[in-house]
Amino acid sequence: MAGIRISGLSKFYGGKDSGMAALTDLDLDIKDNQFVTLLGPSGCGKTTTLRLIAGYVMPDAGTIRVDDRVISSVDGVAPPDRRGMGMVFQNYAVWPHKTVFENVVFGLKLRKVPADEARRKVEETLALVNLAGLEARLPNELSGGQQQRVALARSLVVEPGILLLDEPLSNLDAKLRERMRVELKQLQRRTGITFVYVTHDQAEALALSDQIAVMHGGKLQQYGSPDEVYRRPANKIVADFMGIVNFLPGELRAGTGGAPVLVVDGVEMAAPVGSKLHAGQAVDLAVRPENVRISRLRESPDQLVARVTEHTYLGNLSEYWLELASGAVLRAQTHPLEPFQVGDEVHVSIDAGECSVFPQAAAATPMVKH
Questions:
Q1: Burial class of residue 182 (count of CB atoms within 10 Å of its CB; 0-12, 13-18, 19+)
Q2: What is the value of pTM for the model shown?
Q3: Which residue ranges does the record assign to the ABC transporter domain (predicted)?
């Protein structure tokens, strides 16, 4: 199998001097046998990165290596068919007039694989993607999920070391998309192939990935495990994009013994672990809704006082909008059997150990969530 090392990769559309920077100075180390997701909104550079890896686009700076072999640089690009990679597209790209077998065997025919061996490989690959017995069907006789499996099989049958996937589940309905996530992750584990996956869907990235590269404005914002990018975001851009988050204005102050404390809405609470900001600095506290606890009675001096302004029942949880004394609004999620009514005064505890704190600055361009 194969790993990918990307160094100083940049791409400008319209020319390096006057064009738009689609990707700027990207460094990324994708280990062999990992499921890596390029995540971000439209225009962030993730699809450009995938096309550069695939060899469809020439870089304006930097290199791409597969193991120790340079496959892309400003001096030249190895053709896509000589990279040992497979590609699965968003729109499946299966031939409507060919059967499942004919679609999947196509790449083997181009490689002049003997017919008996080709048939064996196709049958093994169709079994791998749960399509055994459907060899004679045409694409219009298949469901969307089955057509996507045909596209996967066609890429896998030629035994690539790396599989590139460009939002392959975006055309499926919600339940099928969820089921295909599980199948894709199991498929990657069974084959041992390095997967590089592009999506704008945060839940999809969290569910599938070993590592996530969060991108914005053509730049890498953070590269880490799903747990790291969700629970320990590198900056406000990542925190805001990775699911629901509240930003509460506050101030860091020196507490007893020199340990910093955080003051939010006039209430002192423990500063998040690992905070490297200094006392006296204005900050924003990033709080996930699941790290907010609501109670009717005051239980500790570090609780905030709030009023319930909205409630949404979501089946497996209840979501509340809580207005603090300062006017700031905090979104919280609780167990559905913890009922509060609109208008109730409540006390709010925040798990500072699960929060992040960032210096206050001019508002950044938000990442559009889908």
A1: exposed
A2: 0.89
A3: 4-242
Strand partners, 294: 348
What is the reported pLDDT for 91? Answer: 80
Can you tell me the distance from the alpha carbon of 24 to that of 283, in angstroms, rounded to the nearest whole number?
Answer: 29
At residue 261, φ and ψ (nearest 5 deg) are: -120, 155
Q: What pLDDT, on a 0 to 100 scale, did the predictor assign at position 364? A: 46
- Look up tokens 């962030």; give the residue: 44
Rounded Cα distance, 136 and 278, in Å: 68
| Distance separating alpha carbons of residues 7 and 9, to the nearest angstrom | 5
What CA–CA distance (Å, rounded) separates 176 from 171? 10
Nearest residue to 66 via CA among 5, 7, 10 = 5
Per-residue pLDDT reduced to its tens digit, 178-215: 888 988 899 999 899 999 999 999 999 999 999 999 99
Contact between 14 and 20 under an 8 Å Cβ cutoff? The reply is yes
pLDDT of 16 over the 70 cut: no
What is the amino acid identity at position 41?
A: P
Half-sphere exposure of 368 (CA within 13 A, CB side): 6
- Per-residue pLDDT tens digits for 67-118: 989 999 999 999 998 999 999 988 878 899 999 999 999 999 989 999 999 9
Rounded to an integer, what distance in angstroms lies between the CA atom of residue 247 and that of residue 356? Answer: 10
**Three-state DSSP class for 96?**
coil
User: What is Dmax (Cα atoms) for the chain?
Assistant: 78
Q: What is the mean pLDDT of residues 137-166?
A: 92
What domains are there in the chain, each with its CATH number? Answer: 4-239 (3.40.50.300), 246-359 (2.40.50.140)
